[in-house]
């Protein structure tokens, strides 16, 4: 057995989970979401009681959406703002001079 053997790679549940974890939030939207998360967190610090808990929970959810680039609601609706046809910045190919090309 080779070191790269993946016994569960073709299991339907694993394939479905992989689809669910695909990036479906674009880079610009991720930055906006992160900024909103910070605003929610700051507002939660100024609030008390249940409002503070709700604002911090919202900030946590938005932070997770921004960091993972995955939105479960977008997944359910079939929305993808990540522009799959365009290469992501970390996947851009470079020319000999090191410039994107």
Shape: elongated
By DSSP, the count of extended strands is 0
Q: What value does the average pLDDT take?
A: 81
Number of helices: 4
Helix content range of the residues, please?
40-55%
What's the order of the H and E elements? Answer: HHHH
State the oligomer: single chain
Largest sheet: none
Instruction: Report strand %.
Output: under 5%
Distance between the termini: 40 Å
Low-confidence stretches: 88-92
Please compute the radius of gyration using only Cα atoms: 19 Å
Helix vs. strand class: mainly alpha
Describe this structure in words.
The protein has helices spanning 12-20, 27-46, 50-68, 72-77. By secondary structure, the protein is an all-alpha fold. The longest helix has 20 residues, at 27-46.
SSE map:
Elements: H1 12-20, H2 27-46, H3 50-68, H4 72-77
Helix pairs in contact: 2-3
Give a quick set of tags describing it.
mainly alpha, 4 helices, 101 residues, 53% helix, elongated, single chain
What's the short story on this structure?
It contains four helices and no strands. The longest helix has 20 residues, at 27-46. It has helices spanning 12-20, 27-46, 50-68, 72-77.
């Amino acid at each position: 057995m080779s070191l790269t053997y993946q016994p569960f790679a073709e299991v339907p549940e694993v394939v479905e989970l992989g689809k669910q974890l695909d990036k479906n939030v674009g880079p610009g939207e991720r930055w906006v979401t992160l900024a909103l998360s910070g605003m929610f967190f700051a507002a939660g610090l100024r609030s008390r009681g249940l409002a503070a808990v709700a604002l911090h929970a919202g900030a946590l959810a938005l932070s997770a959406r921004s960091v993972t680039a995955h939105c479960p609601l977008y997944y359910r609706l079939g929305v993808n703002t990540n522009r799959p046809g365009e290469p992501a910045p970390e996947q851009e190919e470079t020319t000999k001079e090191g410039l994107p090309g």
